[in-house]
Amino acid sequence: MDLPPLSQSAAPDPAQARAQRQETRLREAAEGFEALFLNQLLKSGRAASFGDSLVESSATETTQSLLDSKLTETGAGRAGLGLSEAIYRQFAGHLGKTRE
Questions:
Q1: CB atoms closer than 10 angstroms to residue 91
Q2: How many CB atoms lie within 10 A of CB 83?
Q3: Could you tell me if residue 78 is inside a domain?
Q4: Alpha-carbon distance 44 to 38, whole Å?
Q5: What is the pLDDT, as a whole number, of residue 11?
Q6: What is the pLDDT of residue 100?
Q7: Global pTM?
Q8: Residue 55: inside a domain, yes or no?
Q9: What pLDDT digit, counting tens, does each position of 72-100 carry?
Q10: CB 84 within 8 A of CB 77
Q11: Which residue range forms the structural domain that includes residue 78?
Q12: Could you give the 3-state DSSP secondary structure of residue 58?
């Protein structure tokens, strides 16, 4: 196992670490927004029913809501919609800029 010399493993640049944290937070926010959008889309689709169901109850609705939340949470950023990537690209230019 080869280890690099101590001089090369110096502490990371604080500005670079801050930029990385900001990028990670922006990606998480973009995926969170996509998950919220998908969740609302599923809710609207489920609300547009054709009538009363024989097996519908409050427990079924709660379970379906929890399933929808989990599906959208795990699917955000991976669904292929590109919404989270578009949001990231839109706001990535503002990373590192300070408010004036």
A1: 12
A2: 18
A3: yes
A4: 10
A5: 59
A6: 43
A7: 0.67
A8: no
A9: 887 777 767 888 899 999 999 888 665 54
A10: yes
A11: 61-90
A12: helix
